[in-house]
Amino acid sequence: MTRQEVLSVIGLADDITVAEIIATGASIEELSEAWAWAFADDALMGQGRPLPGTRGAALIDLLKPDEDDPAEPGTRLE
Question: What is d(CA 68, CA 48) in angstroms, rounded to the nearest whole number?
Fold first, then answer.
């Protein structure tokens, strides 16, 4: 996955977060699904979608902001 592909899914992000996402070896499809789980999990559960696997969970950890720090990597930069 390329930097541009990562940014096409998650929007603006810092270089470290992008590099960590690429280092997971995930596909663009896995990243898209992880993004959906990170920010719309209720909708996916309502559809009966299975929980993400190990790689998906690692991506979610990278994407989901720390609730105590709104500037945590993985958040969209405005």
Answer: 30
What tokens were used for 1?
Answer: 């996955």
Structure token digits, residue 78: 């405005």
Q: Write the Ramachandran bin of 48: left for phi over 0, alpha for psi from -120 to 50, otherwise beta.
A: left
In which residue are the tokens 């280092």 written?
Answer: 23
Nearest Cα neighbor of 41 from 52, 31, 30 is 52
Whether the Cβ atoms of residue 61 and residue 42 lie closer than 8 Å to each other: no
Stated pTM of the model:
0.73
pLDDT along the chain (78 residues), means of 10: 96 94 96 88 68 86 74 50
